[in-house]
Structure formats: structure tokens, C-alpha cells
Design brief:
single chain; mainly alpha; Arc Repressor Mutant, subunit A; about 0% strand
Length: about 70
């Protein structure tokens, strides 16, 4: 199953698995975007990403850490 920018929870779960040592509160959006684009299951247009999309992914990641 491929991931799109709107799959914020699934993206967050994949990122948590690949970067378990990372505190998502300290992550810069530029780094977050690069990590999402590097996910093996990610298949969406890189230009369809904005600050709100990255914030949704970051918030999902934070929620899963709690």
C-alpha cells in the first residue's frame, strides 16, 4: 500500500519505526519532509506538501508517542 501526503498517521507510524530515537517536537519541517519522501511506501507528488501537511504528520507522531 502506497502512502500519500494525506496519510499522516500511517506516515507518522513509519517514521517512528525508522527513527525511534527522534523527538518529533524537535524535528524541523525540512528534515521531516525529506524523511517522508525517503519512505519506501511513499508515492505522492513532492510539490503537494505544505506546512499544514507536515504539521499534521508531526502531530500524529507526537500523539503516538504519548
Amino acid at each position: 500500500m502506497s502512502l500519500r501526503w494525506t496519510d499522516s498517521l500511517e506516515i507518522a507510524l513509519d517514521l517512528m519505526e525508522q527513527h525511534p530515537e527522534v523527538d518529533p517536537l524537535k524535528l524541523h519541517f525540512t528534515e521531516l519532509r525529506a524523511w517522508v519522501l525517503a519512505l519506501g511506501r511513499f508515492d505522492d507528488d513532492p510539490d503537494h506538501c505544505g506546512e499544514r501537511v507536515l504539521e499534521a504528520i508531526q502531530l500524529a507522531w507526537i500523539a503516538e508517542c504519548d
